[in-house]
Each structure stands twice: as structure tokens, then as C-alpha cells.
Amino acid sequence: MYRKNAWQQYIGEERARLGAFADDYRAFLDGAKTEREAADAAEAICRAAGFRNLDALIDSGEPLGPGDRVYRKWMNKSFVAFVIGEESIERGMSILGAHIDSPRLDVKQNPLFEDEGLAYLDTHYYGGIKKYQWLALPLALHGVIVKKDGDVVPVTIGEGEDDPALCITDLLPHLAQEQMGKTASKFVDGEALNLLAGSAPKPETEKDAVKQAVLAVLERDLGVSEEDFISAELEAVPAGRARDCGLDRSMILAYGHDDRVCAYPSLRALTDFEGTPGRTLCAVLTDKEEIGSVGASGMNSHYFENTVAELCALLGFDGDLSVRRALQNSRMLSSDVSAGFDPAYAGVYEKKNAAMLGLGVCFNKYTGSRGKSGASDANAEFMAAVRRVMDDAGVCWQTSELGKVDAGGGGTIAWLCAKYAMNVVDCGVAVLSMHAPWEVISKADLWEAYKGYCAFLES
Length: 459
Ligand code: MN
Ligand code: MN
Hints:
Strand 5 and strand 6 (118-126) form a beta hairpin. The two termini are 24 Å apart. The strands form five sheets. The protein has a nine-stranded mixed sheet, sandwiched between helices. Helix 2 (35-48) runs parallel beside helix 6 (257-271) and helix 7 (303-314) packs across helix 8 (320-328). It has eleven helices and 22 strands. By secondary structure, it is an alpha/beta fold. The protein has two domains: 6-102 and 255-458, Aminopeptidase; 104-238, Aminopeptidase i, Domain 2 (Roll), CATH 2.30.250.10. One manganese (II) ion binds at residues 258, 290, 435.
């Protein structure tokens, strides 16, 4: 069961190709910190690769055939792309799936308030975070404000060199005796996660003069009013760019590797596919995984199934049974990050079943917690097929579980695709500091994930 480190297996120019791919990924991360930005970036990548918008074809009814490349963006927050194969869609697709939402702080619908001369934006955190990690670091606001007339105002504040940043303040150590005695989950109250937004009062204003000054800035710079927050989706994320990490530059430190480190190579594997495949190929990048895949843009909605139904219709299969067959006969790599083994916290891992940085793309036969509860457990037959594909393509891969038995656990989108009775297995990239504002991955694992996804699509 010995597994070699991927770095020791690179010969010739592979290391340079890995470096170039890692640079592309970093650039993608910098332009895609939210699900909306990631869906936009995915659309740009697909359009550059000759994919057409499926919605336009649905409207025109133009039939599809082998070799056609199409994509669909759903509610601007989820994304699906296909390369149509020679075989009947009823025989199933090869699907790569990942999610493009990440833990962050969402601005509330009535967020702006003033307290003792300071103005704040109130937030409600999204996904599983250690709240104390979000204090005293620069945060940027990303998202959209949709005005009552439907005008969409895109917002990115805090990323440019001269942009202001926001932050949540922390207590000075000198006065933190009581705070330091609290458990980490109580260290800071969720309701105390308020973004510091202003301190200079508006001249000749009596009530809430600082808040009024902030509103004047929003009116001047964005043309929005306080009521427009009601129809906004603003997300506070760590400000700044993805960086190479380590003196040897072997890793990347960035916000939102979970799960863009799987989403990006999944999409690239699809768009880099040349020619016409046998089976139809698909990549789905979905929203809302971090809060249970709920909502109309989450994997638990029908958007994916509906899109496959539209595809079937344009391929001449206009019936419910065809859609069911297309989904049931598919096979899928449901890609999400694995908990990278961290020597500093060795106690929560079971070492021989842990994801090691640098050992390549990681397969999780099952996820879940407390007796595999909530797990999608891949069939042994499918695991064997995947093993064969990876080995034949010379991909460096490993297997893992999320931590020790009863240490905790987690789920992915795999079980939602397994509902269609398709073969699906979890796989992905090992991450250190998962769900922290800045997460770490190995460039080798990113590269091996890309190679593995390409091999899966070609098999
Ligand atoms: Mn994830
Ligand atoms: Mn996650």
C-alpha cells in the first residue's frame, strides 16, 4: 500500500507544465472568490474554448449532435458544461462535479448601523467557520446589489491596491483575560461579526452621522440606497491574492481552495478535451454545498436534472425515461477537498487512511460521520474501474477518510447524484487549514487531480 510522493515522479517537462497550470489556477482564484464570480469565470473559459450557451439553443430548438460543446449558467451561481459524445446519451455520461461556494460572511439584508461613532455592516456567517479566525484581518466585499428596477450593480471593494478594506475588530490582549478563558466556539459571538465600515460623521448631521456618511459614499460610488441592501448578495471574504506558499513554492495559500481546487481542474479537463468523445462528458460546478446543497442553485435542486432533460430533448430523446437512463447510466467523480494530514494535529487523523499532501488526487470511497451516517458509499466495482483508469494513465493517487472514526466527519454532493442511481465516488485534493480564511494545497495534488480528471473523461 506504499504510495510514492508525486514530486519524485516528475521527469522531463512535466514539472514546468505543473507550474504553468498552478499559475493559471492562481489567476482563476483571484478572479473567482464567490460562486457568482466562479460561474462567470467558468463561462469565460468555456466561451474561449468554443462552447455555446445552451439556453440560446433551447430557445431556438436547434438540434445538438456529437462533438457539440455547450454550457449553461444557472441563476448566475451554478454552472454546467457538456461535450456531446458519439454514443447515445441514454448510455450515460462521464461527469465531473465540484462546488464553487466557500465559507464566508454574508452581509445581512438590513446591515448598516452606528454604535458610538462607528458604523458597521452586520453579517451572518455562511458555512462551517471557526469564527475567531475572521477577526483582525483585511476583508473584501464581493457580490451584487440589485436595484428595484432590476439594474444589477456589481460590487468588488477591497481587492485593488488603493481600495479600502473592511475588518472585524478583536479585543486587545491586555483586556482579554476573560475572553481568553472561553472555548474557541464561544470566543466570539456570531452576532458580533460586524464589519467596520466607517468612523467619520457627515457634517451638520445630528442623528447617525457616521452611518449617513457611509450611505453617502454608497450613493456616490455605487448609486445605491440603504433599501437596496434588501435585494443584495454581498459576501465578505479575505482580501488579497492567492500566493505561492513555502520557500520551495510547492504549495498555494489562498482563500476558497474548498472547492475551487477541484472545480477548476474539473472544468479545465472538460474544456481541454479535444475531438469527439465516446460518452457525453459533463462538468457541473454547483452552489450552496457548504450549507447543505439546498436552494434553487444547490445540487439538491432540479437544475442539473432539468438541464440534462433539455440536452436530451435537443439530442432527439424527448421523454422522461431517456433522462432517467442518461442519469442512471452515468458515472461521476464528485470532487471535493479532503482533510490533509497535518502533523501538528496528528491526533484527529488515522494515518494510514489520511490524505497526505503531495501523494496525489485523493479518493474517498465514502464520507459521512458516526457510523458512515449520511455517506454515499461508492461500489467496489466502480472503485476498481477508477483504480484501473488512474493507474493506466500514470496518475498519482491515494485514498482517505475524513479523520478518525468518531472524530467528526462531513458530506459532499455525491449522495445527491447517487439519488439517480449512478456510480459516483468522492475524490479531490488534500487541504491544510480547510475552511480557514487562507487554506493551503500542494501544487502536485492540483496537477494530479487535473491528470486524473482528464484520464476519467478519456476512459
Ligand atoms: Mn467542499
Ligand atoms: Mn467545505
